[in-house]
Amino acid sequence: MAFLQQLVLVLFLLRLASSATDRFIFNGFKDAKLTLDGTAKITSNGLLRLTNEIHNLTMGHAFYPSNFRLKIPSSSSPNGTVLSFSTQFVFAIRTKAFGTSGHGLAFALSPNPSIIGGRGANYLGLFNQNNMGNSSEHIFAVEFDTAQDASFNETDENHVGIDVNSLVSTVAASAAYYRAGNTSARESISLVSGTEIIAWIDYRSDLQQINVSISPITDPVKPQKPLLSATLNLSSVLKDFMYVGFSSSTGKLSSEHYILGWSFRVNGEAQPLNLALLPPLPTDGSRRRLAVIIAYSFAAGVLLVSVLAATAYAVYKRKKKLSDIMEGWESEYPHRFSYRVLYKATKGFKEKELLGSGGFGSVYKGVLPKTSETVAVKRITQNARQGLREFVAEVSSLGRLRHRNLVQLQGWCRRQNDLLLVYDFMPNGSLDCFLFDDEKAKSFDWEKRFKILKGIASGLLYLHEGWEQVVVHRDVKANNVLLDAEMNGKLGDFGLARLHEHGQNPQTTRVVGTLGYMAPELSRTGKATASADVFSYGAVLLEMASGKRPIETMVSEEEGEMVLVEWVLKNWQGGGILRAMDSRLKGKFLREEADLVLKLGVLCSQAVPDKRPTMRQVVQYLDGDASLPKDLILNSMVLHDDLGFDQLVLPYPHSGLQSSDSSGTAKQFTSY
């Protein structure tokens, strides 16, 4: 009898929860009555715009005006039972310039039809510095974040995360999706691409499981495998009645955050949006469309002339877009590709072909039309024309470099202010993808690591001593080591920092490098030398052996906080240097090789350039043609604070191995 009474109560409450307000759908927001605050507004054509590009350091909220019952009493749970809910929406993020954004948007459940106390910038309008992690906030959110904040444990500036009363996500992943029918290959999505993206968020009460999926609007089928999936008991997070909506913010860099359509339902799957009814995003071509509308009011003859003129203009624009506009000096340099060939090879530089972006531009996968050869095309935007000719001359010259451990530069192309560099395609990506991905690291054994380290050293020795000029790489790091199909390490991006120096005031020194890999003397002199490359290579040696980043802080009860090289040095001084080895290797490594790599990494990381070995010495050590000095004396670490920079100084006795460029000033240093 008691069971029947409970069943009747549950059925009654479920009926109450399934009232007329248990769902809604907006295919555009032209007639929607939402609760808006901050910069949020509904545009004339029905777009929900949360923030705009005009104002920075702002935030906007938009919530459905009525709340929803999302929790019912339960005898089995003191906090009640959370009902299932589902939502689907289409959003877009537009920025003023590629690669800049601030800061993102979030779908949120809140006890109030707004977010009380929320702040902009990295807080996404959801929280502030005082209430992060406070369970009394009762906020559940799914963030679409376009800025990286290390204090929130975020790994990149393009990710999706599930948040419970905090922006330190319960689970997060880089923005991507699985194509329909394919649950193994992930396709990356740029949240700031400016194009429409569909999002699905589903919570199943019976499994206490939340699933999040996204997909570009060009592939509108809901992926079979979600991007994020987590088991969450939301009974203590959600109140009985909650408001649903969106929150967004900008920082010092502003963005426009749009919602084009939105569907929501309690106890069931949200109704699919009608994509054909969604309002279009604003474009710069609005005036052109208005001119077309006016033209249609003219006589049939005028209309015909206009259509013919427009067609001719379109053909002209396309030909001009793909034509090669060369200046006279360009014909002097070999290895030049036509822009038309590279445009076709990359399918018009489509986002689908984008392999990645970095400090020197974006890299696209391409297939050359005539040879069907797969290549990597790096697209670099150079705003200053001054120095462009000198850079092209240098690129063409260094295109003659040939070494098995250098990514081969096949050629170049200039298009207005864009430089396009064509490289051999490396199917296994960059070294850091294997080293810092726990799944890939399982198969990344010591034999492969040691082979790659020897290859990188050989490539650097060739740059320093094996060509007609000394070539300084300037940015040796794991991210710039690429892996071919046989897992051979090849150095890429050597000397591209040079591009960013063209047109600079010669009286001004611009420090180029990556924190953790950059030799300390660069911050004082700004002059890159072969010894600075050795310092950077030392960081890679320690990375490969320990599986930790050079600027990653190591914490232990006895030693406090210290950076990687200090931690390795401490273990060396304590007589247990192999304790610094990557635990994921599970002790499967040759002790002699591991000992050599760790010690050599510390020696290369010395702050005084003259104390570091040359690359020739490094290669001889790794090849077993020379041994580290047996009389090596380790003093306590000495930190010098002169000139405002801490420097690690270790004694390094000369072993009689001399570099061919040890005179320092005898050779010209050229960077590419």
Automatic annotation (TrEMBL):
As recorded in UniProt, coiled-coil segments are none
Q: What class of enzyme is it?
A: transferase
Q: Which PROSITE patterns match?
A: PROTEIN_KINASE_ATP (PS00107), PROTEIN_KINASE_DOM (PS50011), PROTEIN_KINASE_ST (PS00108)
Sorted keywords for this record are: ATP-binding, Cell membrane, Glycoprotein, Kinase, Lectin, Membrane, Nucleotide-binding, Receptor, Serine/threonine-protein kinase, Signal, Transferase, Transmembrane, Transmembrane helix
Query: GO molecular function terms here?
Result: ATP binding; carbohydrate binding; protein serine/threonine kinase activity
Compartments in which it is found: Cell membrane
CDD domains, alphabetized: lectin_legume_LecRK_Arcelin_ConA (cd06899), STKc_IRAK (cd14066)
What is the E.C. number? 2.7.11.1
ATP-binding is among the record's keywords? yes
- Where the record annotates domain Protein kinase, the positions are 349-628
Does this entry carry the keyword Nucleotide-binding?
Answer: yes
Residues that bind ATP = 378
What start and end residues bound the annotated signal peptide?
Answer: 1-19
Q: Which residues cross the membrane?
A: 290-316
One GO cellular component this record assigns the protein to is:
plasma membrane
Q: Which family does it belong to?
A: In the N-terminal section; belongs to the leguminous lectin family. In the C-terminal section; belongs to the protein kinase superfamily. Ser/Thr protein kinase family.
Q: Please give the name of this protein.
A: non-specific serine/threonine protein kinase
What organism is recorded for this protein? Nymphaea colorata
